[in-house]
Design brief:
This protein is α/β, with parallel strands linked by helices. The chain folds into 2 domains: about 375 residues, 3-Layer(aba) Sandwich (Alkaline Phosphatase, subunit A), CATH 3.40.720.10; about 100 residues, 2-Layer Sandwich (Gyrase A, domain 2), CATH 3.30.1360.150. Helices cover about 35% and strands about 20% of the residues. The protein has 20 helices and 19 strands. The strands form 4 sheets. Strands 1, 2, 5, 6, 7, 8, 9, 10, 17, 18 and 19 form an 11-stranded mixed β-sheet that branches. The chain has a 4-stranded antiparallel β-sheet with strand order 12-13-15-14. Strand 6, helix 7 and strand 7 form a beta-alpha-beta unit. It starts with a helix and ends with a helix.
Length: about 525
Amino acid sequence: MRFSTNSFFIIISLIFFSLAISAQATRPRLVIGIMVDGLQQKHIDELWNTFDDNGFKRFIRDGVNFRNVHYNIVSAGNASDIANVMTGSIPFYNGVTGNYIFDRRTSTIQSILQDENEIGIGTKQTFSAFKLQSSTIADELKMAYPDKSKSFAVAIHPESAIMLGGHTANSVAWIDDINLRWVTTGYYTEGLSRWADEMNVNGEFKSISSRKWEPIFPLRSYWISRLTGNKANNFEYHPTDRKSKLSPETLLKKTPSANSLVAELALKTVMNENLGTDDYPDLLMLQFTVRIPKERLNALNTTEKEDIYVRLDREIQNLTDKVNKKLGIENVLYFMFANQTDPYSPNELGEKKIPAGYFSANRSMALLNSYLMALYGQEKWVENYFGKNIYLNKRKIEERKLNFYEVQRVVCDFMLDFEGVQAAYTLSELLSMGVDNNSEKARIRNSIHKSNVGDVVISLMPGWLELDENYGFIGESGSVMTKTPFYIYGWKIKPQTVEKSYLTADIAPSLSRILNIPFPNACIGKVMEEIVN
């Protein structure tokens, strides 16, 4: 039998083609990531018997439930928490230290997303992922399969949308709760997706936004009355009502209508973009919420809180049912995580005589500056303060020929006298310290970035939260190490509960391994063995 050279090369080509097809079959065709703002494992456990079978329960029952996943960064907002998960890294490397930063160049506090070189689409906000200094799993997927894999993000808030989308998403969208529409930034190649634009134009966005929110069950059916002993309260909210007479913002972002909007656009994106229908994996990142209007307590103790959980449970069930029916669960991988949120607020801890409180910098910075004036003369020695960072007036210190390090030490010592302050460090101390990676010092060091770090950085005692000048929270957790629920379900994942301790930075490399793509370029996490073996 004659065996020609051409026949040999044809056989070799067929072998390689078969291997390629086999390799593609070993990874999911679509990955759907879900971030839930305010989600707590404690609440899931308490409401377990209230949920339907195929919402939250399906993730936990049919997937892997990681019970000990921690954030090892200071809580400073959704932007830094999501960037931590998506990059597998920390602010020290990825540059995202919180939702807002102090810009020393302009002496202003601005959004971490602010980018004057971009345009808003449907909004005056000029946002981008420019300050995100490392790649994400979404970016690595798009670079691994250019022009093949697709990536979309749909969220309630811009910080969530852009950090979930990374640098390379086809399109991201977030809710404009003033003008009631989907908006985005010109930073992304496809701008506002056709499906988001259709919802704006055909009135679907406003229709969903206008749904009155009232109890889904008869009041006697709510678990909260049995859990707390308090009678379930009746309520009625109109999501398009203003937060207050002086605010143009509406209640929309803290109502079930926001979750319905995200779920609806997510389904339209999957179906119309034909996500997960070829051999190249696609990614869809979503943000939902279980926050309610005027929420100041973290415990599950109101009818509204239970109701928004139940409604979100049904949104998740509807979404996963329809996606699984179209693509088959063997082709879809889901994962779910939350931001940093404590089980109890400082108010709740205080009621139980547990030390806790709220730290407001206005008074402390005024006293600090007065103290420095008494020591060094009548000048404005404190340039600014934001997010546990104290910015000193370097120009004045240099003009007076003062020893900058000595001034820093004086500031550190003075700050220790304030209630709620645990410690204070100079920048050089943070950068040079060799400490246990699980310590409080390491968490602070992890959370700074050279582009916006102060000259002195403080940490607060457990149970304390920081307030900005408008008495809004800067971060949602005062715990030393904050746990987050993490569930992964679908594809080839086998059900189990994992008690082993992991960090949120371990999520990105684990997903990268499953997708067979490079780790993000600042990734410091390790692979979670239970989901990749």
